[in-house]
Amino acid sequence: MVVQAQGPVENLPVFAEDTDPALVGWSPADLMFHTFSTLGRHDHNFGVTYPAGTTRPVEPVVKPQASRYIPLHAPRWEDLRRSDPPVVVAMELRRSARRYAGSPITAAQLGDLLYRTARVRSLITAAPGGQDPPDVPPRGTPYSNRPYPSGGACYELELYLTVGSCTGLANGVYHYDPLGHRLEPVSADRAAADELLNAACMTAALDSPAQVLISMTARFRRLSWRYEGLAYRLVLMHVGVLMQNLYIACAAMGLAPCALDAVDIDVAARAFGADWRTEPCVGQFLVGGQPDVNGAHLSRMLLTMRPLLDDVHLRCHDDLMETNWAGRLRCRIFLPDQSEATFAKRGFTAPDAARQTNIEKVGSIFLEGFEYGMAGLSLSAIESSLETVEPAFRGFAYEGCTMALAVRDGIRPSGRHWVRDLLASRGANHVYMAYIGVGWAMARLPRLRWRAIEPHDPLLRWLALDGYGFHQAYFRTQQYVWNQRQDRFPGWEPHWYASRVADQGMGRALWFVNGSDVQRVASTIEAFPQSRRGDLWSGAALASVYAGGADAGELSDMVRLAGPYRAHAAQGAAFAAKARLLAGLVTPGTELGVKVHCDMSVEEAAAVTDEALDGLPSDEGDTPRFEIWRERIRSRFE
């Protein structure tokens, strides 16, 4: 009974507990439950006592199976091991979802979810720890083993599914048989079932009708037969671990989960045809199809994004990493293995070990920068780490770091703008490599998140597509290099030019794919349609200057092999000169490459790029300003 006072009540006694600040947060019911379900403040019988002895039979390990049932899909373990993410990834991406996208959840997905989280894995006879009841004759098989823990292996929880929308399963109420892994239709109060769904929808503040409501009931005597004083406490603990199981499985499967905090036990009892005194409802959990969050496919894509993690990822600056748990976790989720930058993994070849070592080091430094960006707590800490990288390779570290920061921006639609902040600081001197790094992130994020990371510089934003093209040629060499695939880029206008900029990035990648072998680079470009060769030569020459790896004679051969595209190659070399000079990272290899391709010093070639900006149209026309800039630079070398 609940009695509400009508107005203030005077002359009531005041006890010390009424004014004790330590007790302000407790209600009498909560405090009593806490003290009586733990040790220390009472002397009642407590723990494994088998309080009823032989006078009360044990509840069966599972409820009697019904004659009518619907078998559920059971996944194959080899499929789960191959496709599921590590548990730490699913835990990090666990979220409550209150909006659904696309089609409803399917019966097969429900089967997978229940199989992963709540089925009976095996039946066991002996009690855990040898704590069988004294003087109580054995009664068959009173225990079971399931995917979540339960005090004394009693497993008192039962699951009822109230279905409002599920592909392949009729609306209604079902009991889950965990031993047979099947659903048993429940013929109870349909109006009560509808009331449960409506209440769940309001409790969770869903934007659309509830799809499937999983209700947890407790056969309380399964626990009170064995435990005294803490049976209900254990029930609530079991509800918590089962809900966590459901959450993690939903994250791995790309489903939309949401735990509920309240339930009408009378309505639930009517809906399930149960007695609330012997089998009360103790928890509820909504599940639907794919969640509609900022990018519906994003979490699932990132979970399955290759390559996935390994402990060897955590290789740089342990002092920073160990104080930054979130950073460590981001690295475990997103950081590729170091082997991804090796020729053995990529299938690349080089004429000699020195060139292979140089190119593999570029990849290794890129990943080092990526790790700084993913792990960093603050921009200043990230920049400090980047500035420790060897100058000849520091630009690649900034490129990798900006990719990581763009990924962070892309998966967090609100909050900090890491790339913008980097470019407003030390990253300003590495703006060319930074925007290319954004393109790498575009290749790893779903297209619906591109707008969140697209560069705002009206001229240099095209470099992001350059980075995208490099990524595709580097990681998907068969498709993009040997099969000469071209992508379309909706939202990037004119669309014909977007593909050309991606080819410039592919050209840079050809320097890596062919191991800095000038002859092989030329042969690879020659195999492409004539309309694509100029941009490919521009990118290849840029890489030959920025990454290095060829001597003067080989670079001279490259100029000769470029033939009618020599001016395109010189323009790419001039871009490399400008990028290195702006960052203060000019090396002897830079000077050599610029001298051979442009017949100029690094400073003179960089000045050509600056002069070509003078009088550039302020607005985009039929030909993008970026291409007008490149044409002006090319004209200086024709």
Can you put this structure into words, describing what you see?
The chain has a domain at about 50-130 and about 140-290: NADH Oxidase (3-Layer(aba) Sandwich), CATH 3.40.109. It is built from 29 helices and eleven strands. The chain has helices at about 15-20, 30-35, 75-85, 85-90, 105-115, 190-205, 220-225, 230-255, 265-270, 300-305, 320, 325-335, 345, 355-375, 380-385, 390-410, 420-425, 430-445, 450-455, 465-475, 475-480, 495-515, 520-525, 530-545, 550-560, 565-585, 590-600, 600-610, 625-635, and strands at about 45-50, 70, 120-125, 145, 155-165, 170-175, 180-185, 210-220, 225-230, 255-260, 280-290. It has a seven-stranded antiparallel β-sheet with strand order 2-7-6-5-8-11-10, sandwiched between helices. It has a two-stranded antiparallel sheet with strand order 1-9. Strand 6 (about 170-175) and strand 7 (about 180-185) form a beta hairpin. Helix 14 packs across helix 16 (about 390-410). The longest helix has 23 residues, at about 230-255. The chain is elongated and about 100 Å long.
Topology readout:
Blueprint: H1 16-19, H2 28-36, E1 47-48, E2 70-71, H3 77-83, H4 87-92, H5 107-117, E3 122-124, E4 143-145, E5 157-163, E6 172-177, E7 182-185, H6 190-204, E8 212-218, H7 221-224, E9 227-228, H8 231-253, E10 256-260, H9 265-272, E11 281-288, H10 298-304, H11 318-322, H12 325-334, H13 343-346, H14 353-375, H15 379-386, H16 391-411, H17 418-423, H18 431-444, H19 450-453, H20 463-475, H21 477-482, H22 495-513, H23 518-526, H24 530-546, H25 552-562, H26 566-583, H27 588-598, H28 602-611, H29 625-635
Antiparallel strand pairs: 1-9, 2-7, 3-4, 5-6, 5-8, 6-7, 8-11, 10-11
Helix pairs in contact: 5-8, 6-9, 14-16, 16-18, 18-20, 20-22, 22-23, 22-24, 23-24, 24-26, 24-27, 25-27, 26-27, 26-28, 26-29
